[in-house]
Amino acid sequence: MELTLGIESKNEDTIVLEFEPPNSGLSSLRKLQKRTQRKSKKLESPSSTNLIKHSYHLELKQKLCSLNSSRDNNNSTTGYVLWQTTPFFIDWLLYHTDSNTQEQNFNLRAFVFSSNVIELGSGVSCVSTVILCNYLSNSNYYVVTDQKGILSTLKENIITNKHEIIHNAKQLKSVTMNWSKPLKESFASNNEEYSLPEEFFHIEVEPLDWEYVFSQKLPCFVEKALGDTYSRNCTILAMDVIYNDFLIKPFLNTLDTLFKKWESENDSSRLTKNDTQCEIKCEKKGIKAIMGLQLRAQDVVQDFLLEAVLEYEFNVQVLHSDYLNSSRFCFYVISPSTQ
Ligand SMILES: C[S@@+](CC[C@H](N)C(=O)[O-])C[C@H]1O[C@@H](n2cnc3c(N)ncnc32)[C@H](O)[C@@H]1O
């Protein structure tokens, strides 16, 4: 691919991104700025997230010199910088009503917010991680993955921006980053119904290279996120990860492996009595991959879709809205043929 097409900033090693709801005085589009003063923020309870009014201010480090290196991360260097697909998707998911409407029995925002999330090929930026962790308070895991060489800067970015995770009612914890973040005192005292949580919400960072998924055991927290979903959904998030033909098969194999693992873990013959009662009472839960592709080369997108549908027999649904249709991105919801 034309290597720099779709990079958020080609000049700055530190990017500041603002996410603002519409009618907040600023445009709903993110403002890309040089370092600015942090605005004070008012805490709101998670119940107000039906209409998302929260804004976010992220400072992200990227490594432009590694992007152009032929040695770093075995010459797989696109993950060293922030690309436009993820911020565009998060802005749409949070602030556009059409991400929150029911289509063919499926509400994308509701599905993601009631999921454990596994992010594939996240790159160094932690935009989805930090922002979505605010809305997954009924879930237990956000597991963010990429190739090994990308992870130290990703961890640094999560730690720099973790103060932006303020709306999750659970105690936040990360074994892989060795931290535990207590609830904000003001949040706990202002929201009696969200009194101290018994469970932890994990934000974990793990290496997952699609080339080796067959030969290696899945990382520990990826497995946990897949095995912990009977009462919740599982979302696999993958933004701008298919940009050449070589990536298609390893990526689809990885999706297939994750879908099959989820299905075996959530096989109804293995359910406990409580799970079965939950199955009767609640809507049955599912696993779906939400993918965003930046439209660069039509043949790559076409090959990807053909292989996903014909070889892997996945269900592939295209997300449509006037806003999405007029962008340079295409978004898909992919699920196993059994769902
Ligand atoms: C264009 S970047 C997109 C990064 C990020 N999702 C974003 O939107 O900013 C593609 C990502 O796919 C990752 N990737 C490429 N090949 C991979 C592989 N074999 N296994 C895991 N991740 C891979 C890269 O490291 C990189 O983070």
TrEMBL record:
<dbReference type="InterPro" id="IPR019410">
    <property type="entry name" value="Methyltransf_16"/>
</dbReference>
<feature type="region of interest" description="Disordered">
    <location>
        <begin position="27"/>
        <end position="48"/>
    </location>
</feature>
<dbReference type="GO" id="GO:0032259">
    <property type="term" value="P:methylation"/>
</dbReference>
<keyword id="KW-0949">S-adenosyl-L-methionine</keyword>
<dbReference type="GO" id="GO:0005829">
    <property type="term" value="C:cytosol"/>
</dbReference>
<feature type="compositionally biased region" description="Basic residues">
    <location>
        <begin position="31"/>
        <end position="41"/>
    </location>
</feature>
<keyword id="KW-0808">Transferase</keyword>
<keyword id="KW-0489">Methyltransferase</keyword>
<comment type="similarity">
    <text>Belongs to the class I-like SAM-binding methyltransferase superfamily. RKM5 family.</text>
</comment>
<dbReference type="Pfam" id="PF10294">
    <property type="entry name" value="Methyltransf_16"/>
</dbReference>
<protein>
    <recommendedName>
        <fullName>Ribosomal lysine N-methyltransferase 5</fullName>
    </recommendedName>
</protein>
<dbReference type="GO" id="GO:0008757">
    <property type="term" value="F:S-adenosylmethionine-dependent methyltransferase activity"/>
</dbReference>
<dbReference type="InterPro" id="IPR029063">
    <property type="entry name" value="SAM-dependent_MTases_sf"/>
</dbReference>
<dbReference type="GO" id="GO:0032991">
    <property type="term" value="C:protein-containing complex"/>
</dbReference>
